[in-house]
């Protein structure tokens, strides 16, 4: 029987790459995005259905989840919609703070809530979320983005206990930098007082061989959906694996001090 995955944020990046990979593997894909009428690639695939979804719209979340379930059984929900809000907290408006949390955290929570009753009745189902290495360790001038990803970590670990009671799984994908994602989709809040640290941090993150492609992360998502394990976290990408191993080996304070020293040595 053909399996179905429901994907949020499928218009670009990891979401689109995941939709294409699962479709190629024979899955039925329900790819959601804010403006499906603008999609020119996924709409050409026979086993992909496009639906509109803005994860900050609570009413639309419920409506789109119901539309998806009318189409047939759903096996996996991939909560992927999100973006990076970078910059010093002093430079970020209240509206930007709320938007970041509404999208990256509450959007995931609400989409998950919309599907839990169905999965509970089925006594099966899997939620996969796009987290980040920034949910495992804090980085400079990204406090609100990191906060949204750290929130997902505690939420999913706690939620796993109640979901597992009904045979429902929950997993988080933890990539590091993904090619084009930071430059093309991030929002940068500028403030002259923090220009130096912002420049050093962005220079430190300059793309190199450690950056993953969206297609590589999509492969991790597919593995998480099909490996049959109860694994909670999938740290992926050479950069994320290296940073996280360093964090675990050094401990929280030593890692933070090392990152401060590394940042101070960056030439811009």
From TrEMBL:
Transmembrane residue ranges: none
Keywords: Oxidoreductase
Gene Ontology MF term list: oxidoreductase activity
InterPro entries: KR_dom (IPR057326), NAD(P)-bd_dom_sf (IPR036291), SDR_fam (IPR002347), SDR_oxidoreductase (IPR051911)
Gene3D superfamilies: NAD(P)-binding Rossmann-like Domain
Record flagged with keyword Zinc: no
Boundaries of every Ketoreductase domain copy: 3-176
One Pfam family per UniProt: adh_short
SMART domains, per database record: PKS_KR (SM00822)
Similarity remark: Belongs to the short-chain dehydrogenases/reductases (SDR) family.
Protein name, UniProt field: Short-chain dehydrogenase/reductase SDR
Organism this protein belongs to: Spirosoma linguale (strain ATCC 33905 / DSM 74 / LMG 10896 / Claus 1)
């Amino acid at each position: 029987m053909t399996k179905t995955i429901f994907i949020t944020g499928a218009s670009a990046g990891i979401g689109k790459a995941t939709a294409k990979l699962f479709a190629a593997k024979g899955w039925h894909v329900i790819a959601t995005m804010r403006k499906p009428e603008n999609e020119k690639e996924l709409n050409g695939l026979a086993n992909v259905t496009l639906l509109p979804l803005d994860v900050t719209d609570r009413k639309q979340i419920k409506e789109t989840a119901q539309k998806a379930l009318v189409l047939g059984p759903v096996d996996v929900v991939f909560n992927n919609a999100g973006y990076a809000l970078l910059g010093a907290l002093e430079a970020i408006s209240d509206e930007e703070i709320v938007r970041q949390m509404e999208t990256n955290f509450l959007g995931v929570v609400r989409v998950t809530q919309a599907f839990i009753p169905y999965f509970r009745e089925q006594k099966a189902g899997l939620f996969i979320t796009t987290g980040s290495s920034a949910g495992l360790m804090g980085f400079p001038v990204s406090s609100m983005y990191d906060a949204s990803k750290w929130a997902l970590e505690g939420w999913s670990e706690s939620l796993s206990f109640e979901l597992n009671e009904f045979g429902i799984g929950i997993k988080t994908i933890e990539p590091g930098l993904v090619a084009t994602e930071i430059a093309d989709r991030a929002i940068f809040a500028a403030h002259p007082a923090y220009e130096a640290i912002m420049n050093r941090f962005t220079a430190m993150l300059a793309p190199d061989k450690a950056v993953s492609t969206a297609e590589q992360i999509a492969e991790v998502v597919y593995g998480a959906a099909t490996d049959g394990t109860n694994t909670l976290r999938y740290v992926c990408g050479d950069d994320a694996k290296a940073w996280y191993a360093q964090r675990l080996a050094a401990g929280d304070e030593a890692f933070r001090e090392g990152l401060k020293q590394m940042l101070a040595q960056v030439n811009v």
